[in-house]
Design goal:
heterodimer; A: 435 residues; alpha+beta; Cytochrome-c3 Hydrogenase, chain B; three-stranded antiparallel sheet; three-stranded mixed sheet; 12 helices; B: 261 residues; alpha/beta; Rossmann fold; 2 domains; five-stranded parallel sheet; 10 helices; 5 strands; 36% helix; 11% strand
C-alpha cells in the first residue's frame, strides 16, 4: 500500500468536532493531522469587563463534560488574584464534587465511548440489547457520579453552588449518607468493570513521551484539586504561578495550530495516564491493586492504556469520596458567607480535570472586574502528542496488512483513547487550509 | 414505526446533548420508544432520514449556518435545545467586546477582524472567521425550543412524551419566582441579591435560587412586561447601576429584545 488517504470527517464518540487527515504517497507520510473544526468561542475575550464572581459561572459553559473542572480552576484562579483563602469545608466540598466529575467523565468514556470499539459495535445502543447487564451497570455508576455532583453543586452540567469565596449551599447530612451507601455498593460494580476490561485486548503502541500532571507534595494526596506541576522527565515541582515555565504554547510552522510543548520535549501528554505515571504511589491501596490486576505499571507509555488508568482512578475516586463524606459528617457542616476580595491582581488556578491539567489565569482590576484571561485546556496540550502517536502508528498500520477501514478504526481508537474534549480546546484550532 | 431521532451540535459546550445521556433512569425506556439514528457525540452510525432533530449550540460561523440549513432539510421536526440554540446564549457575550468594553456593532459581514478575535488569536485572527452568535431560529424555522443552560432534562422528557403521545407542548408562561415561592425559598432580594427570577421563564423548578444562587436568566425572558416592571423596581427600590443590570441581562439573553425603562 504505497498511496493511502484516510479522511475521517467528524470523529465520532468524542466531545466536539475533530477530523483525522492522513496522506501517504510512495510510502511516505505527506500529511498527518488531527484537525479541530469546532468553531472558536472567544471566552478569554468576552470575560473581559465581567465581574470577578461571574468567571466560574461563565467558564463552566466552555464544556458540558468538564464543567465542574472549569469551575474549580476558575474559582481557584480568581481567589488567587483577589487574595481569598477558602474555608476547609469549602475545599472538602469542592474536592468531593470534582471526584464526582472525574467519575462521571471516566464512566462515560469507558462505557459509552471506548467499550463499543473493543466489542466491535458503533455505539452503546446495540449493547443495550446484547449486553443489557453491562449497560445497566454503566448507567448505575454514571448516575451515582452525577448525583454526587448534584448533591454538592445542584447539578453536574454547569454546577450552581460553587462560587468564588465559598459555597452557596451545603448538602444535608442525609443526602451525603445516601451517597456514601451507594459509593460502597459501587465497589462491586467497579470490580465487574475491571473484569470486563481485563478481557479487552489493548492495542500495542509505545512511544517515549513526557507525562505532565499536578502532584501534591504537602499532604500526599493523589492530585486532583491541588498540587504543583511535575513530569516524568522533570519531577521537580513548579508552582501554579510559574506555569509558563512548564507549558509553552508554540506555533507549528506548516499549520495554523497553536500546540503546546514543554522545556523538555516537543510534545507531551496530560490526563489519567499522566497522573498515574507521576502519582501512582499516592493512589488508594485498592486502586493500586486494581492497576496491578490490569497489568498497569508506571511508567506506562502506551496511550491506549489511558482507559486503564481512568478505571484505576475511578476506583481511587470512589474510595476518596467515601473518606471525604466521612470527614464532612464528622466535622459537621454549616452555611458560611461567601468571602470577598481583599486585593486585586493576577492569579492562576490549576486543577486536574478528567482529561488532564487545566490552567485558568485571570487579571482582576481595582473594581474587581476581569481585565485579562488565559485558559489552557487539556485536549489542547494533548493534540501534538496525539499527532506524534499517529506518526508512529501509521507506518506500522501500512505494513500490517489491515484494510483501510480497519486502519481508520485504529486511528480513531487512538484519538478516542485520549478522550479528547474538543469544544474546550478550540483555543488551539488546527485547521487544514488546503481544502 | 418508532420515530427516528437525531442529536446535533453547533457552537457550544455540547452539555445539552450530554444531558440526554444523563437521563440514566429513563435512557433505556427512551431507547425503547425512539430510534436514535444520528448522534456524533455518542455513536458512529449515521443516517439522514430523521423525524425529530435536536440541535444544541448557537449559529456562530458560516459553517454553522450551512449545517443548520442541512439539519432543517433532513428533519421533519426541528427542536432547539439549550440556551445557545434557543437564545444565542453565552456566545452572544462576544458582541459586547469593543475597545472600551462597550457594545460594538455586530461583526457579521463587515469583513473586519474584530478586536476579540485578535485578543485570542493574535495576528492569525483572520484565519478564524466567525459571525454574530445567533439562535438557530435566526437562520431556519424552528418548531420547538427548550431553553436553559443546560436544558432542563425533565422538560426534555416531558417534551418527548408529549410529542410521542400526539399532545401539544408549550413552555410555562410564568416567571421563575412562581416555582421559587412554591419551593419555599427565601427571596434573594431579601438578602440584597439582584436575581433575574422575576423576568425569567419558569420550568427549571428554580434550581439556582434553591441552591443559593441568583437566577441568571438562562431560560430567557418570560415577557416584555415583566422586564419593564423589573426595570422600574430595580431603579426605584434597589440601588443598582444600569451597567450591572445590563451585565446580568446579557449573560444569556443578549439576542432577546425588551425595553428596560
Amino acid at each position: 500500500m504505497k498511496n493511502v488517504t484516510i479522511d475521517v470527517k467528524h470523529v465520532t464518540r468524542v466531545e466536539g468536532h475533530g477530523n483525522i487527515r492522513v496522506r501517504v504517497s510512495d510510502g511516505e507520510i505527506t500529511q498527518l493531522q488531527l484537525a479541530i473544526v469546532e468553531s472558536p468561542r472567544f471566552f478569554e475575550a468576552f470575560l473581559r469587563g465581567r465581574r470577578y464572581y461571574e468567571a466560574p459561572h461563565i467558564t463552566c459553559r466552555i464544556c458540558g463534560i468538564c464543567s465542574v473542572g472549569h469551575t474549580t480552576a476558575s474559582v481557584k484562579a480568581i481567589e488567587a488574584a483577589c487574595g481569598i483563602v477558602p474555608s476547609e469545608q469549602t475545599v472538602l466540598l469542592r474536592k468531593l464534587i470534582l471526584y464526582g466529575e472525574e467519575l462521571q467523565s471516566h464512566f462515560l468514556h469507558l462505557y459509552f465511548l471506548a467499550v463499543p470499539d473493543f466489542v466491535g459495535v458503533g455505539s452503546v445502543i446495540p449493547l443495550a440489547k446484547t449486553h443489557p447487564d453491562v449497560v445497566r451497570r454503566a448507567l448505575r455508576m454514571k448516575k451515582l457520579a452525577n448525583d454526587i455532583c448534584g448533591v454538592v453543586g445542584g447539578r453536574h452540567i454547569h454546577p450552581i453552588a460553587l462560587h468564588v469565596g465559598g459555597m452557596s449551599h451545603v448538602p444535608p447530612d442525609e443526602e451525603l449518607i445516601g451517597l456514601k451507601r451507594r459509593l460502597e455498593d459501587a465497589r462491586a460494580d467497579l470490580r465487574e468493570t475491571a473484569k470486563l476490561f481485563s478481557t479487552l485486548k489493548v492495542p500495542d503502541l509505545c512511544r517515549k513521551t513526557e507525562y505532565v500532571s499536578l502532584k501534591e507534595t504537602d499532604n500526599g494526596e493523589y492530585a486532583f484539586y491541588d498540587g504543583d506541576i511535575v513530569s516524568t522527565l522533570d519531577p521537580r515541582p513548579t508552582k501554579a504561578a510559574d506555569y509558563r515555565k512548564r507549558i509553552m504554547e508554540s506555533i507549528v510552522e506548516h499549520s495554523a495550530a497553536k500546540h503546546c510543548r514543554s522545556p523538555n520535549s516537543p510534545t507531551y501528554a496530560v490526563g489519567a495516564l499522566a497522573r498515574f505515571n507521576n502519582n501512582h504511589s499516592q493512589l488508594h491501596p485498592i486502586a493500586r491493586q486494581t492497576a496491578r490486576d490490569l497489568g498497569l505499571e508506571p511508567i506506562c507509555e502506551n496511550p491506549f492504556h489511558n482507559n486503564t488508568a481512568q478505571l484505576v482512578e475511578s476506583v481511587h475516586c470512589v474510595e476518596a469520596s467515601i473518606e471525604i463524606i466521612d470527614e464532612l459528617l464528622t466535622r459537621g457542616m454549616k452555611v458560611e458567607p461567601l468571602m470577598t476580595p481583599t486585593r486585586h491582581g493576577t492569579g492562576v488556578g490549576l486543577a486536574e480535570v478528567p482529561r488532564g491539567l487545566l490552567v485558568h489565569e485571570y487579571t482582576v482590576d481595582k473594581d474587581h472586574r476581569i481585565e485579562g484571561a488565559n485558559l489552557i485546556i487539556p485536549t489542547g496540550q494533548n493534540l501534538a502528542n496525539i499527532e506524534e502517536d499517529m506518526r508512529e502508528m501509521v507506518p506500522r498500520l501500512l505494513t500490517s496488512g489491515l484494510g483501510r477501514e480497519e486502519m481508520t478504526l485504529k486511528l480513531e481508537m487512538l484519538v478516542r483513547a485520549y478522550d479528547p474534549c474538543i469544544s474546550c480546546a478550540t483555543h488551539f484550532l488546527d485547521v487544514a487550509w488546503d481544502e | 414505526m418508532k420515530p427516528r431521532i437525531a442529536i446535533f451540535s453547533l457552537t457550544g459546550c455540547e452539555g445539552c446533548s450530554l444531558a440526554i445521556l444523563e437521563l440514566e433512569d429513563q435512557l433505556l425506556d427512551l431507547l425503547g420508544a425512539v430510534e436514535i439514528v444520528n448522534f456524533r457525540e455518542g455513536m458512529t452510525e449515521k443516517d439522514w432520514n430523521i423525524d425529530i432533530g435536536f440541535v444544541d449550540g448557537a449559529v456562530s460561523t458560516s459553517e454553522d449556518e450551512k449545517e443548520v440549513r442541512h439539519f432543517r432539510d433532513k428533519c421533519r421536526i426541528l427542536v432547539a435545545i439549550g440556551s445557545c440554540a434557543a437564545l444565542g446564549g453565552i456566545n452572544t457575550l462576544k458582541h459586547y467586546q469593543g475597545a472600551a468594553g462597550e457594545a460594538e456593532p455586530p461583526v457579521a459581514g463587515n469583513g473586519d477582524v474584530a478586536e476579540y478575535r485578535r485578543y485570542v488569536y493574535g495576528e492569525r485572527a483572520e484565519w478564524f472567521p466567525t459571525t454574530k452568535a445567533r439562535p438557530i431560529s435566526d437562520v431556519v424555522k424552528v418548531d420547538y425550543a427548550l431553553p436553559g443552560c443546560p436544558m432542563v432534562k425533565e422538560e426534555f422528557l416531558s417534551f418527548v412524551t408529549s410529542l410521542l403521545a400526539g399532545r401539544t407542548f408549550t413552555l410555562p408562561d410564568f416567571a421563575v419566582c412562581v416555582e421559587c415561592k412554591k419551593r419555599g425559598n427565601l427571596c434573594l432580594y431579601e438578602k440584597g441579591i439582584i436575581c433575574l427570577g422575576p423576568v425569567t421563564r419558569a420550568g427549571c423548578n428554580a434550581i439556582c435560587p434553591t441552591f443559593g444562587s441568583k437566577c441568571e436568566g438562562c431560560r430567557g425572558i418570560v415577557s416584555k412586561e415583566a422586564v419593564a416592571a423589573a426595570g422600574v423596581n430595580l431603579r426605584e427600590q434597589y440601588n443598582v447601576s444600569l451597567k450591572d443590570v445590563l451585565d446580568d441581562f446579557r449573560l444569556f439573553g443578549a439576542w432577546q429584545e425588551a425595553d428596560l425603562p
